[in-house]
Amino acid sequence: xxxxxxxxxxxxxxxxxxxxxxxxxxxxxxxxxxxxxxxxxxxxxxxxxxxxxxxxxxxxxxxxxxxxxxxxxxxxxxxxxxxxxxxxxxxxxxxxxxxxxxxxxxxxxxxxxxxxxxxxxxxxxxxxxxxxxxxxxxxxxxxxxxxxxxxxxxxxxxxxxxxxxxxxxxxxxxxxxxxxxxxxxxxxxxxxxxxxxxxxxxxxxxxxxxxxxxxxxxxxxxxxxxxxxxxxxxxxxxxxxxxxxxxxxxxxxxxxxxxxxxxxxxxxxxxxxxxxxxxxxxxxxxxxxxxxxxxxxxxxxxxxxxxxxxxxxxxxxxxxxxxxxxxxxxxxxxxxxxxxxxxxxxxxxxxxxxxxxxxx
Length: 360
Known about the structure:
The longest helix has 20 residues, at 70-89. This protein is of the alpha/beta class. It has a 6-stranded parallel sheet, with helices on both faces. A 6-stranded parallel sheet has the order 9-8-7-10-11-12, sandwiched between helices. α1 crosses α13 (336-351), α3 (70-89) packs parallel to α4 (109-122) and α7 (195-203) runs parallel beside α8. The model has no long low-confidence stretch (mean pLDDT 91). The chain is built from 13 helices and 12 strands.
């Protein structure tokens, strides 16, 4: 029986998960490691160069080139890469926790490709949120296929939010007819998440009592205007386009029957885990990652569709969701103690890695 990794590792975290509302998963992960006696420090370039850390734990390395002009982004990338190289010379191991293979919106694509190539040479290990995701990383970045790759599932959100209100009472308050399907899209609204396709498919669903709630902050005024135009002539659609406060989240999931996440491309989905934590099934495009999630949590919870999202897929998903209404998914693999333990073991193993420092 494992006694767990040694205590007291020092981790430089980018981002650090603060404030917690920006990413509850990362915040909870680092809170769990601190409870084990680990030191978690928020990233700065100065700390990366001058501090003594066992691990530089980065989640979205593309942040370095996500803002500013090409010249500013290139300078920022160069400084960060130099700092990473110095840190590795001083014994810090670089671990990439892979949330996305590529940024969903690349401001400077040519610069990003060059930067990504050098970053990958400096990475000592990856932590992946699924086995299918680890396979995608190896296929996309062959240089990383020769590095340790750990798999630690995304943690659940059970207990992270107040309990959901009574389903029937909340539906009555919202004026949803008994037996009417209520669908929910939740999360930041960006082009790749397929919100346009969802509104188009829902418009074609000829069921007058169906309801759709779209809740989240759009990425820009143009996207907001497009969604408002699509929903303007369908009174069944409730757009809640803005930042959703933590205490508002349970009231969104409580009355709904099905959470629809029609992402055009995805590696991992925190929104899917959030829905499952509220015991709400999800309708998602077919992928190896979602199939793996569905296999783990049990039948009927992760409902997949092939091809474009259609009204028929929405209708089938709503019908299937009724079969698990009184049940709960099996989230044991996503329980916080287990996820923190596995993450600690992965980072501790990465801290022991010995690999030559690439030439600058």
